[in-house]
Specification:
- This protein has four domains: 149 residues, Immunoglobulin-like (Sandwich), CATH 2.60.40; 105 residues, Immunoglobulin-like, CATH 2.60.40; 97 residues, Sandwich (Immunoglobulin-like), CATH 2.60.40.1080; 185 residues, Jelly Rolls, CATH 2.60.120.
- It is built from four helices and 50 strands.
- The strands form 16 sheets. A five-stranded antiparallel sheet has the order 35-38-47-43-44, with no helix packed on it.
- It is mainly β and 550 residues long.
- The protein starts with a helix and ends with a strand.
- A hairpin with a 2-residue loop joins strand 31 and strand 32.
Length: 550
């Protein structure tokens, strides 16, 4: 039944692609993307051969790049240059081509995924996160270009940090006073020493001011502090998830705030800090401190306990060459691992922090994928095969079995990244895309992945190739491709992702993929794998998520 379905899908897709004039699994950006048949392809807008002996020699995209990356809502104008056999060259072609004999021809533009991106006379509009292939057809020539559409980056300015203008306050009378605040935004702008009313207008969210011990002092939403009794309290300012506090001490009044009695420190926890951080970044430090009488949340330096005692958090790093601490801010300096410690009144807690390599923008969008700039060494074994090598590997991943390179049983491919290499950044670092099929069982032709910095010493990712129950953890060729999703988001893209931290390398420029020869009796791929035209791991694409320029 599966064989019948696969054959049906194959002929359906082949017929559909030929009817549209495009072959969507050919090399993006090439000028020879026409079906390979015994008959000459028929132009979509044919020129009468009796009126001109001039032929169209080449069709070249004028914009640089094999892959374009847009955000939802953005546009990209495409145009191309045409060269005729008589030496005539036409530039900036988007809608109409003028032939040397004076006739004209309309350019046919088409998107294979109009949900993700549309195209009109060369203008591509990004509509939804995912991948689309944009094609232009004129005469007997086609151009195909990959487009990756990412979610729209929020242009809304958000608050990233909030603090009181003073680290602490003291008052020796019952006279009220106004506090002021500092803050910074996601666009790197900031404000300083601003009254609460002004801050509320700036923030775009509701500023909430409170006192942890109203019996000592109250604070209004306008920022007016009203002393009530001798003692200490936390003044708290919060805007959404951003919160800060400052210690206020009141003295010189006729009444003392009630004391809660015996107070016991019960627990201490570092909050709001991820275990993986990027070198060159910084973060504010916070703790939740729990006493028998209640919890002080998001404490950073000095704070007042529910019972009215003033405590201090002492922060330290086990290796200040990896990250250092300046007051209540941690600065992540270089790649490595160290321990962060917070201590309050003899009680301490720790968190292991891995500082990762920073990711750089690639010089061109093509560099995030395999391209003609990279080098490939294919060792093809039993029943290996491909339609176009290495062109089938270029650009974004696609669902299907035609735009791939089959390694054959026991075959391999060595990829040497030339311009943009993989680094050990935050999260997974690269994703390998194959074409597994999820039906009654998972049809997965597995491979192991090895990486190297120098092309000689290779380190293998642990791969459990026979563990059917857990879907072959650590292997490539397991998770189906979601071609409608952004390949840069491993949580939705499909494919199999790898983290250099698992092999202890900071960067690699060589990736070796070896087929595990799993087409054996008893494997879920058998016997279909044995009777198919090609066999073994089918490499579709590779996407670099964390990278740096070589």
């Amino acid at each position: 039944m599966r064989s019948f379905v696969l054959i049906f899908i194959f002929f359906f897709c082949l017929t559909a692609c030929q009817n549209t004039g495009f072959v969507f699994d050919s090399e993006p950006g090439s000028d020879d993307d026409v079906p390979d048949t015994n008959e000459s392809p028929t132009p979509l807008n044919p020129i009468d051969p009796t009126t001109s002996s001039v032929s169209l020699l080449s069709l070249n995209l004028e914009q640089e790049g094999e892959v374009f990356i847009l955000e939802v809502g953005q546009t990209q104008d495409l145009s191309f240059q045409v060269q005729f056999s008589d030496g005539t060259i036409e530039n900036s072609i988007t809608s109409i081509l003028n032939w040397p004999n004076g006739s004209t021809e309309t350019i046919l533009w088409q998107s294979d995924n109009t949900t993700v991106a549309s195209v009109d006379q060369g203008r591509v509009t990004a509509l939804h996160e995912g991948v689309a292939l944009i094609g232009a057809s004129v005469g007997e020539k086609n151009i195909l270009v990959d487009f990756v559409v990412n979610p729209q980056t929020s242009s809304e300015k958000t608050l990233t940090q909030l603090s009181f203008y003073q680290d602490s306050y003291s008052q020796t009378s019952s006279r009220s006073f106004l506090i002021t605040l500092d803050g910074s935004y996601s666009d790197q702008t900031s404000f300083s020493n601003q009254y609460a009313d002004n801050v509320s207008l700036r923030l775009g969210c509701s500023l909430l001011l409170s006192s942890s011990r109203p019996a000592v002092a109250e604070i209004t939403q306008a920022g007016a502090v009203i002393p009530k009794a001798n003692g200490a309290t936390n003044l708290i300012a919060a805007c959404g998830s951003v919160q800060t506090l400052s210690v206020l001490t009141i003295s010189g009044l006729d009444v003392d705030a009630p004391f809660a009695g015996t107070e016991t420190l019960e627990s201490l926890a570092i909050v709001g800090l991820e275990d993986e951080q990027t070198s060159g970044s910084e973060a504010s430090l916070f703790c939740d401190v729990t006493f028998n009488g209640g919890t002080v949340s998001n404490a950073s330096g000095d704070f007042v306990s529910p019972g009215g005692q003033i405590y201090s958090i002492i922060w330290s790093s086990s290796d200040e060459s990896i990250f250092s601490i300046d007051e209540n801010t941690v600065n992540f300096l270089v790649y490595g691992e160290a321990t962060l410690q917070a201590e309050v009144d003899g009680m301490s807690t720790t968190q292991e922090i891995a500082v990762k390599m920073s990711t750089e923008w690639a010089a061109t969008s093509t560099d995030y994928f395999l391209s003609s700039n990279d080098e490939f060494t294919l060792t093809e074994e039993t029943n290996g095969g491909y339609g176009s090598y290495p062109n089938a590997l270029y650009g974004a991943p696609w669902t299907g079995g035609t735009d791939v390179v089959s390694l054959g049983g026991g075959g391999s491919i060595l990829i040497h990244l030339q311009d943009y290499v993989v680094v050990d950044g935050v999260g997974v670092d690269f994703t390998v895309f194959e074409n597994p099929v999820l039906a009654d069982v998972l049809f997965a032709e597995r491979a192991r992945v090895l990486v190297s910095e120098n092309g000689t010493d290779f380190f293998e990712f642990s791969c459990d190739e026979w563990n059917t129950a857990e879907n072959y953890p650590g292997c490539a060729g397991v998770n189906p491709v979601n071609a409608l999703a952004s390949p840069f988001n491993p949580s939705i893209s499909g494919g199999d992702s790898f983290d250099l931290a698992d092999v202890g390398l900071t960067s690699v420029s060589y990736i070796l993929i070896e087929d595990l020869n799993t087409c054996v009796e008893g494997d879920p791929t058998y016997p279909l794998c044995g009777v198919s035209y090609t066999q073994g791991f089918d490499l579709d694409s590779l996407v670099i998520i964390n990278g740096q320029q070589e």
